[in-house]
Amino acid sequence: MIPFTKVHGNGNDFVVIENLDGRFKTEDLSRIALALCRRKTGIGGDGILVVEPSEKADLTMRIFNSDGSEGEMCGNGARCFARYAFERKLAGAVMDFETLAGRMHAEVKAPDVILDMGSIDCSKGLFDETVSLLGETFPLAALRVGVPHCAVFMNNLAARNRNDLVLLGRTLRHDALRFPQGVNVNFVQDLGEGKLLVTTYERGVEDLTDSCGTGSTMCAIAAAKRWGLGSPVRAINPGGVNIVHMNWKEDGTACEVRLEGRTALVAQGTILEEAGL
User: Fold this and answer.
1) Based on CB atoms within 10 Å of each CB, which residue in 132, 180, 215, 257 is the most buried?
2) Is 80 a catalytic residue?
């Protein structure tokens, strides 16, 4: 039996388990993610967050997607991780933790969590591309924000059919020539007044999710480059609002980012053997 906590950040939901004693190996965690994230036979989630010890920071965060793959980083997941660590008294309200994408700094002001994502290197980003999908041509941007992301700019995102967005997202996510490692696909509409409408197709989840923190961050940076949006940018996801605070380097090659948004601890319990672990 394994204790768990169910959390979400603006609808991006996760199952948190502790591995402070190292009893679970990577292959175990992959298998656990596959079993627990199933919506009808498991607990349901976009992924699992694993709490592990660290010699360099307060804790280490590992994230496994619902397909069992290990992710480098997740903005909403990191915010949920910080909230969990604070509530469980594993760290203080201000904490540092390691991820595969580097060290993260977070401040918990429950239920909100502010995540310092450090300096994002924009020098290798693509901001003036186009992509042709299903007979239409869209402006495209691409940038790595912990994990690879692209933004597809649309004028009528709110009117788009969900199935069409899934098909568009899946097509780009598997475009091996453009994105050999795969990519998270963000559909973006400018709403004016520093607001963006954002819907994300997430690599590893292989579907649209209600919110994506790193995706919101990438879209805010791309929108700042494209339209000159100032800080902060409010990224309105289906599950809630992610607020992206940006501090640009003078030459525009890098941007220091803080991601702010709501978190919620919704359930605690014990995972039983019949979950299929």
Assistant:
1) 215
2) no
